[in-house]
Fold each of these.
Amino acid sequence: MHTSRRLAALGSGVFARSDARKQAYRDRSPTTGSLGLIDLSLGSSDLQPPSGVLCAMRDAIPAPSSSAYCLQAATAPFREAVADWCQRRFGVTVDPEHEVQLLVGSQEGTAHLPLAVLNPGDPALLLDPCYPSHRGGLLLADADVIPLRLQAAHGWRPPLKELSASVWDRLKLFVFGYPHNPTACVGDQELLDQIMHLGERHKVVIAHDNPYVDLALEGQAPSLLHSPGWREWGVEFFSLSKGWCLGGFRLAFAVGASPLIAALRQVKAVVDFNQSLALQQAAITALRDFADWPATLRETYRQRRDRVLAGFAMRSWSVPKPDMALYLWVPCPEAAAAHGWKDERCAAELLQRSGVALTPGSGFGQGGEGWLRMALVRPSSELEAAVSRLADAVDALA
Ligand SMILES: Cc1ncc(COP(=O)(O)O)c(C=O)c1O
């Protein structure tokens, strides 16, 4: 069977590879008597959504309108709830009709946007490492992908000075996000303002992926909605997956320049209709009645982070302190390098030897090579057990 060149460029995807390794581990462990799997490879939290949100969804399910196809007009109450949230959260007035779009996830939005704004071969910039849908979306749109390499030595900040005015003049799109997955840096407003300003000056669409906006543990997470210019050349993606623990329900939204929202809507209209009104009712309830929910999660993540960091330190494994909740960005142990293992092999070997699943950094781009991402998505005691198992496995290697 022939498949497209595009598909070959996409590759198998880091989460799919890691899923296969975890399944193989689970299948084998009853016979080998291995330790139970501790899966820290996905940013899918064990923490709970507000029960009021689930009740709102449950109550809306029997309504006939929840079973019907939902076209754009019927998403108006959701879009209005988003506009109200933007007003309260950022003090920014947003037009719910023209500047808001419901999404199946921030992943879906960032993956579809390039189809709406790029022609094949158009140059588009992304951060390296970055969340996989940023690269995937550009590849699906046959973009000329330009990676902007982030480095630990520069605090994982984008080296904007490396981009000349002529590069900016050629660019059509820049996709990025702070707080940044996988490096767990929060970023700052000045950075976003600078990028938005460059976008306006050089007529580049600036797409900012912001599912962690309420999950900074240190400092303030930036938002493109605070950067003058978003209404002309910017779009920002928000999600209910992380702050409200609703990842499985696939609820997110874009807020942006009206021509960009219209273009994204046009692409999405080909692909599918919208989620059930029962799901939208859950999202409306979350944004309206539980806007503080993400803040209540932060304390739990902070405790987890601090206990895990202490565990690593006790085992002489030096891990930088992340500024955002949810992830630790962990350097591969020297013992792995001594065996000639790159991060993907290192993650596979650590899984085999400790039963702890981490994500290899190179799965987010070459800039992530040599690193492993640990998601803090289990209770502290389990995370501490994971650190101790990992450190035992590394000690045994040495
Ligand atoms: C930067 C980034 N964007 C998007 C997503 C996916 O979000 P959603 O569940 O809204 O698709 C993630 C999930 O880990 C992420 O880290």
Note: Residues 293-314 form the longest helix (22 residues).
Amino acid sequence: MTIETIYETIKSKGKRLSKARKAIIEILFQSPCLLSTSDIIIKLKARKIQPNRSTMYRELLFLAKNNIITKETIAEKDYFELPTDHHHHLVCTGCNTIKKVVIGRHLQKEEKQLEKDNEFVITNHSIEFFGLCRNCRKV
Ligand SMILES: [Zn+2]
Ligand SMILES: [Zn+2]
Ligand SMILES: [Zn+2]
């Protein structure tokens, strides 16, 4: 998926492509995994965009609600990423480190069954694995 495809999706939903919105997409596009609201604000500032924190948070929620970006809440903190490359996360409950992981076999079979059993159409899923990283297990 290219960044233009994402811009097109936003426009096709009848949404404006403001400067800040475009910058957020670019920042998330360049990041391989989750970014916190603060991470995004720091990166926006580096691009000479001075966003108001609550405006920015509302913007991120808006993009998540429209399925343009994904929102994950880990240890009561919100993180965002683009759903461009499907992956999952290992979350250390000791130090809150998040590691990107790819599961070899997808859950397609299980999803098909869930859809059938519940008369439900699944469009996406997000899975986090919680545990302790090597450093946190040493204590
Ligand atoms: Zn990720
Ligand atoms: Zn840890
Ligand atoms: Zn998956």
Note: The CA atoms of residues 41 and 51 lie 7 Å apart.
